Amino acid sequence: MKFAVREFFAPLGRAVMIGFLCASLICAPVMLEGCSARSTVSTVIADMPTILNIAQSILAIVAAVQGTPAGGLASLQAQADASEKAAVTGLQTIQAVLEAYQQDLANAPASALRKISAAVTAINANLTGLETAFRVSDPKTQAAIGAVVTAVSGFLLGVESLVPAAVAAIAGLPQTARAGSAPYVMPSARTLAKRFNAAVGPLVPQAKVHVPWARVGPIPVLP
User: Which tens digits make up the pLDDT trace of 180-201?
Assistant: First the structure.
């Protein structure tokens, strides 16, 4: 009798579980896409691989340049190569500091926070130079480079917003990054990638980056 009851309810239990999982997989991406967490060290670290991929798309964009820009393509390629390397180096420096002090960034040594400040300044300067260099290029390439600059610059705002005002003043971070203003909301890596791809995809498809999968707990769903 017990065996018969078990056999009767087992398929029902499996059906309920499958229905629950399916509902979770259908609904969860919607919830994940709509959520944005305030900028935190863990969010910035999680976003880092995606923002590095975006920075490393610069040379793919240069490869798609149409025509011969003023000053020559070789000059433009050299500028792009230098900017990409500087951006990647700076982002890796920021990543190393954040990973080392992620449990208590406010009490990190001023020397460590100055590394963040120097990296942010260097990346922004290189991106400004990159945009200037590409103003002599075709409109599609200019817009694609603009998408890179927008993504990386926004990410750097999130990095700066992590540092409390008093510490930022000592470390020399820009005034605009200090606490007291509205908190910067750092999007997820998935959202970063999708926004970038939406901007750059119609212009230079080969520059699109990998979109991280959404997850329901440990279960990956949707590319």
Answer: 445 567 889 999 999 999 999 9
Report helix, strand or coil for 162.
coil
- Region 161-176: what's the mean pLDDT? 58
Whole-number pLDDT of residue 69: 58
Phi, psi (deg, nearest 5) at residue 35: -100, 135
> Global pTM?
0.74
pLDDT for the residue numbered 57: 93
Provide, rounded to the nearest whole percent, the portion of the chain with pLDDT above 90: 32
Q: How far apart are CA 5 and CA 13, in angstroms?
A: 12
Closest CA to 99 of 108, 89, 111: 108
Q: Break the chain into its structural domains and give their ranges.
A: 1-35, 38-212
Cβ-proximal residues to 191 (8 Å cutoff; 6+ apart), any chain: 33, 36
Distance, CA of 170 to chain centre: 27
Cα–Cα distance between 100 and 187 in angstroms, integer?
Answer: 22
| Residue 192: half-sphere exposure toward Cβ, Cα within 13 Å | 31
**187 touches 44 (CB < 8 A):** no
- Residue 10 tokens read as 């087992």
Q: Are 108 and 97 in contact (CB under 8 A)?
A: yes
Pairs from 174-181 (Cβ < 8 Å, separation ≥ 24): 174/117, 174/120, 177/120
